Amino acid sequence: MTLDVDAVKAFVAVAELRSFTRAAEALGSTQGAISVKLKRLEDRVGQKLIERTPRLVRLSARGAVFLEPARELLAAHDRAVASLAAVRRHFRLGIATHVGGAEVPTLLARLNAHDPALTIEVRLDDTRELIAAFDRGELDAAIVRREDDRRDGEVLAPEHFGWYATPDFVYRAGEPLRLAASAPSCSIRDVITGTLDAVGIPWTQVFLGCGSFAVAEAVSAGLAAGAFSSRLVPPGTIEVSRKFGLPPLPASEIMLLSTLSDAQSRDALRTLAMAFREHRPSAAANGARPRFRSSQMVDNPV
């Protein structure tokens, strides 16, 4: 049996993005074309792979079994095509330290599998530093938190924040809040301290970390409270906004900036965006702790 690579790619995109709409956008196609390719694949294998209703998209039992082999088939195909390239290409990618979580290794592995001839140079830094580097032409792409009203990037996901501390952390109203935060140059720190200042809550920074991981370790140790994305909650901590009467933190967005225009690089960017969205739990959008995604997937209304 011979399978159509484009049809398999359409199936994997629908399965990973939970939506015919987003799959079409990721592949630079239309919903109609995606549906035709999926139907052609299902006719070829003689199995129903995706179950779809007006409000729901999910893998069938056979589709769930086929998904990983389908990914392996696409990776092998991409490696075969890439092996014909005579020149290795370079991809300079910046990822903000407060954005990248457990999905970062997956993002890089997916990019490498998609295009083995691509040399990936990764820079981890604060959003402000990465945006400045991007604007200077030092980066080809960057995954960062939206700063100000910048609109030249592709929105990858919303980002919600909350206040976290260990269950035994003590804070009394009127006293300075013992705060763990990143260096003064970090944009997240400005949001945190500015929010406290706006409502008249005094604070003292008892831990100055270099990056979000160091700050998370300090909060997990009970040294201070801190503000974190709902995706990156430090282990052993709880949300304490209501408990301590702390003000809500403004939501933001994670966006992808890029100057790449050639078809091969744009295809790599689509792979990057797809992998990032796939590994962002939907619970994070509601301010909840991350949970594993089930096989049931909700489609975007058309």
Automatic annotation (TrEMBL):
Compositional bias of kind Polar residues: 293-302
Keyword check for Nuclease: no
Ranges for region Disordered: 281-302
The UniProt record lists the keyword Transcription: yes
An example Gene Ontology molecular-function term: DNA-binding transcription factor activity
Pfam family name, one: LysR_substrate
Alphabetical UniProt keywords: DNA-binding, Transcription, Transcription regulation
Membership in a protein family: Belongs to the LysR transcriptional regulatory family.
Protein name: LysR family transcriptional regulator
Organism (species): Mesorhizobium jarvisii
